[in-house]
Specification:
By secondary structure, this protein is an alpha+beta fold. The protein is 46% helix and 15% strand. The strands form 2 sheets. The protein has a 5-stranded antiparallel β-sheet with strand order 4-3-2-1-7. Strands 5-6 form a two-stranded antiparallel sheet. Helix 1 runs antiparallel to helix 2 and helix 7 packs across helix 8. The chain is elongated, with a radius of gyration of 37 Å. It starts with 21 loop residues before the first helix and ends in a 16-residue tail after the last helix.
Length: 343
């Protein structure tokens, strides 16, 4: 029952919830700001290069945003069930609610929403997060949840992921999340290097780094799938129903973006080998390369060397010593009457 002044007996008051994850919101705002900045300078680009440039920018920003977003997402493994279950400890009251479980790379997120929301003179709408990222203590967060007196379904699911739980879900998901997150950070670094190389005349290496970006994303999926399947699934019984988990949107989004990066990287490498001039034109680089050095009188009056081939070079001629000696002029003094000086 509600306490005095309509406050919950286990909470100091109702919590105001943000409509989405704050970390995901920050990532979206940063990349949207970058996109708007590039769109503002878009009119300064001429011709068809404007469309090519916009396509490159949108694709690159989308890949980078997805890599960061899935790394902080809590929807790698998800599950939801509608059931009738007990609500509070030491109480025989039951409620009808939708219970959701989202497992991410850094923790779990548990939601419970009453159907209807108003039951037992309370608003049943909880969204609780328990993390195991570096610097976080999952067991301490679970102890604080016990002190708060959270609803039974939340405490039951959170207890399954504690280090001392016989289900071993904590070790299983924590190790899988750590390795997958580290691999995604490497993929993000490869994405940064690919963008740097695409701005330089080393486009083929940019394609290689884009290919590496996709490979590391696929490796992250492999690490997560293998790590979470080492032990048999632990049954999660909530009242009259059983909660089953499956791969969530973050998993499948990473798979799609990873495959797209692999295909784009391969296409970039093949196109650079087959049609290098068109690839340079797409990236707005100079496709006219002058391999000869010619003298141009218009270039500030400074002649450039012109190298002739062996066929153009004149053949050397042998000059006899007698002709060479006779061809030398005699040195004469300015004053008449002096003898000639000879060599």
């Amino acid at each position: 029952m509600a306490a005095f002044e309509h406050t919950f007996p286990f909470y100091a008051g109702p919590k105001t919830t943000f409509p989405m994850d704050t970390t995901l919101a920050v990532i979206i705002v940063i990349f949207l700001t970058a996109l708007v900045t590039f769109i503002i300078i878009l009119p300064g680009i001429r011709g068809k290069m404007r469309l090519f440039w916009l396509l490159r920018v949108v694709t690159s920003l989308f890949i980078g945003a997805v890599i960061l977003a899935v790394n902080f997402s809590s929807e790698w493994s998800v599950g939801q069930v509608s059931t009738n279950t007990s609500y509070k400890a030491f109480s025989s009251a039951w409620i009808s609610a939708d219970i959701g479980l989202q497992v991410g790379l850094g923790g779990v997120n548990i939601t419970i929403t009453g159907t209807p929301v108003k039951q037992l003179n309370e608003t049943i709408n909880y969204n609780e997060e328990f993390t195991w990222r570096l610097g976080k203590n999952y067991a301490a967060e679970y102890a604080k949840a016990l002190e708060k007196g959270l609803p039974d379904p939340v405490l039951y699911l959170a207890e399954k992921f504690t280090p001392r739980s016989p289900c071993s879900l904590h070790r299983q998901y924590r190790l899988a999340g750590h390795y997958a997150s580290a691999t995604l950070w490497v993929a993000f670094l490869c994405w940064l290097l690919a963008n740097v190389m695409f701005c330089m005349p080393v486009l083929v290496y940019g394609g290689h780094m884009l290919l590496a970006t996709g490979i590391f994303q696929l490796l992250a999926l492999l690490f997560y799938s293998v790590g979470t399947s080492l032990t048999p699934p632990c049954p999660l019984r909530l009242g009259t129903a059983v909660l089953h988990t499956h791969h969530g949107p973050a998993f499948w989004t990473t798979l799609i973006i990873g495959l797209m990066c692999v295909l784009l990287g391969l296409a970039m490498v093949v196109a650079h080998r087959m049609q290098p001039h068109r690839v340079k034109a797409f990236f707005n680089q100079n496709v006219e390369e002058d391999h000869t050095l010619e003298w141009s009188p218009e270039e500030e009056g400074l002649p450039s060397p012109r190298y002739r081939s062996m066929a153009e070079s004149p053949e050397p001629k042998d000059i006899p010593l007698s002709e060479a000696a006779s061809s030398q002029p005699c040195c004469k003094e300015e004053h008449p009457g002096e003898p000639d000086c000879a060599l």
